[in-house]
Amino acid sequence: MNPLKVLYVCSEVYPLLKTGGLADVSAGLPPALAAQGADVRLLLPAFPAVAAGVTPEGPVLPVPAGGAPGLPAGLGPLPGTSHGPDPWLQRGRIGASGQPVWLLHAPGLYGRGGNPYLDGSGHPWPDSAEQFAWLGWAAALLGTGLDPTWCPDVVHGHDWHAGLAFAYLHQLRLSGSRAPGAVFTIHNLAYQGVFPANVRERLGLPDALFHMQGLEFHGQVCFMKAGLVYSDAITTVSPTYAREITGPEQGCGLDGVLRQRQEVLHGILNGVDEVVWNPATDPLVQPGFDADHLQGKAAAKARLQKAVGLQPQPDALLFSVVSRLTEQKGLHLLPAVVDELVQRGGQLMVLGAGDATIEQALADCVARHPGRVALRIGYDEALAHGVIAGADVILLPSRFEPCGLTQLYGLRYGTLPLVRAVGGLADTVTDCSLENLDEGSASGFVFHQLNGTELSAALRRAFALQRRPADWRAVQRHAMALRFDWARAASAYLQVYRRAATRTPLAIHGTASA
Ligand code: ADP
Ligand code: GLC
C-alpha cells in the first residue's frame, strides 16, 4: 500500500518559531504520523526564523496567482503580494529533525522579523489577511497537483491561518480539479481570522462563497469558518473541547456551524514530545530525574529558587505558571489569592507575557512579597523547562483550554497540575479527592467554577496534600507514570485522514478520542 501523503499546513513549528502550543503540536505530531507510515510534509510561511532553520532541497516552484492561465475559472485573481514578486515554494528539511517541509516564500508578506501575527504594538499586521490567504492558496494548489511528483491524499490545516485553504480547495474541486481529503484542526476557536467583507476581492474569493453556509460571519469574511464549512472532517485537540464548542458558552459564535457538522467533528487529545519533555533526558534540566529518583527534581527546585530570587526553602510549596498571560488562561484570578498562598507558606513563580493588567497585578504581588513571589515577563524556553521541573505545582485556572500542554508537561515532571475542569484540562487531570486518592487515580487539583473562592479551595487542597507526604508521593508517582503520547493521537488522526480521503464520515462524535 502506498503511504498516505499528508500536506500539513500550519504557521509555526518548534523549535524554529513558537508562540504557543500550536508549534509544539507541529513538531510532535508529524514524526508520529511518519512512524506509522504516513508521508508528511509541512507547509509553512517562510518567516525568517523558519527559513533560517530549513535546509533547502531541489528547485523552487512558482505559485501562480488565482485566475492565471491554466488554473480553473471561478477563483481570483489573488493579487501579487504588492511588495514584490509572486510567491514561490521551496522544498527542504528542518535542520534539527529532518522533517520535510515546503516553505512559502513571499518576502513582502513574511520577510519581516518579530511575531508572525502581531506588530510591535500588539496589533495584527495590516496585511494579515493576505499573509494567510497566500498560505491557504499555496496549500490548495499543492493539494490539487501543483507538484505532480508529490500529490497529497490529505490536506490537513491548522487554525484560522490555514482556513482559506479549504475554501480554495472547495472552489477548485467544483471546477473539476483533483480533490484531496480536507481535514481542519481547531486549536483555539477564539482566534478566528475575521476581516472586512471587501477583503474578498483582494483574496480572490468569489461571491458564491460569501453566505451564511459559507465563509461569511456577521457580514465579514471568517477564515476559521472557511475551515469549518469546507473541510471533510474537523478535529480539535481534546474530547471535552470538542463537546464544549458545540454550545454557546465556548462556541465563540460558531457553535451553530459546529453543531451542523457534529457528525464529522472529533476530539483527539494532544501528546507530549518525549524528545523535548522527558525529565530523565531533558538537557535543560540536569541532573535528570524520574519517579523513583527525585534528587534531580529537588536540585531543580533549588536552582530555580536561586535563579529567580525566591528564598531557598526546600519545603516551601512552590506554585508556578508558564503561560501566555491572557484572559483565556484565567490568570486574572491569581493576584487575589497570592496573599493567602504566601501566608500559608507557599511560593509562586510566574513566567509569561501578555495582558498588561495581569502583568501589572502580578508585579504588585512581587512588590508585596519579595523572595516569596517571582515574575519573569517574556518568553524563555530554557526557563520554562526549569520552572516545570523545579516547581511543585503548575497552575492553569483557565477560562477555556482547548487542550493545554503545560499540565501534561507538569504531570510528566511530577509537578502536580492545579487546573479548572475545562477542555483538555478536564480530560487529563484528576482531582485529589479522598475517593480518587483511595483508588489511586488522583494526579492534581481540579476546581470547577471560575472564581477566586474555588481557586483558593484548590490551593488549600494542595497544601493539605503536602502535609501528607506519603499521599503526595503516591499522587506524584501516578502523575509521572501517565503517558499522553503522540503515537495514540497519530493513529486517531490517520483514521480521520483515511475517512476524509475517501469521503466517508466517521459518524460517532468524539470516537477518535483517547
Ligand atoms: P497555548 O498554546 O494556549 O499558549 P499550551 O499549553 O498549549 O497553551 O502551550 C503553551 C506552550 O508555550 C508550552 O510549550 C509552554 O511551555 C510554552 N510557553 C508559554 N509561555 C511561555 C513563556 N513565557 N516562555 C516559554 N515558554 C512558554
Ligand atoms: C491552542 C490552545 C491550547 C492547545 C494548543 C495546541 O493554543 O490554546 O489549549 O494546547 O493550541 O493544540
Task: Please bin the fraction of helical residues.
Answer: 25-40%
Structural category is alpha/beta
Strand fraction: 15-25%
What fold name stands as the CATH topology of the largest domain? Rossmann fold
Described by strand count, sense and barrel closure, the largest sheet is: 9 strands, mixed
The termini sit apart by 27 Å
The count of β-strands is 18
| Relevant CATH superfamily of the largest domain | Glycogen Phosphorylase B
Give the number of domains. 2
Strand order of the main beta sheet, please?
A: 3-4-5-2-1-6-7-11-12
**Which term fits the overall shape?**
globular
Report the top-level CATH class of the largest domain: Alpha Beta
Tell me which CATH architecture of the largest domain applies here: 3-Layer(aba) Sandwich
* Average of the residue pLDDT scores: 93
Oligomer: single chain
Rg (CA only): 23 Å
Helix and strand topology:
Layout lengths: L4 E5 L11 H15 L3 E7 L2 H5 L1 E9 L25 E7 L5 E6 L1 H4 L17 H16 L10 E5 L5 H11 L6 E6 L7 E2 L3 H5 L12 E2 L2 E3 H7 L3 E4 L2 H6 L10 H6 L4 E3 L27 H14 L9 E8 L8 H10 L3 E8 L1 H13 L4 E5 L3 H10 L2 E4 L9 H7 L3 E5 L2 H6 L5 H6 L5 E3 L4 H15 L2 H13 L4 H16 L13
Helix pairs in contact: 1-19, 4-5, 5-7, 10-13, 11-12, 11-17
Bound molecules: adenosine-5'-diphosphate and alpha-D-glucopyranose.
Describe the protein in words.
With 514 residues, the protein is of the alpha/beta class. The protein has two domains: 5-44 and 119-271 and 487-501, Rossmann fold (3-Layer(aba) Sandwich); 295-481, Glycogen Phosphorylase B (Rossmann fold, 3-Layer(aba) Sandwich), CATH 3.40.50.2000. 36% of the residues lie in helices and 18% in strands. The strands form three sheets. It has a nine-stranded mixed β-sheet, with helices on both faces. Strands 15-14-13-16-17-18 form a six-stranded parallel β-sheet, sandwiched between helices. The chain has a three-stranded antiparallel β-sheet with strand order 8-10-9. Helix 12 links the parallel strand 14 and strand 15. Helix 4 packs across helix 5 (164-174) and helix 5 (164-174) crosses helix 7 (223-229). The radius of gyration is 23 Å and the shape is globular. The two termini are 27 Å apart. Bound molecules: adenosine-5'-diphosphate and alpha-D-glucopyranose (GLC). Residues 20-22, 25, 187-188, 237, 270, 401-405, 424 line the site of alpha-D-glucopyranose.
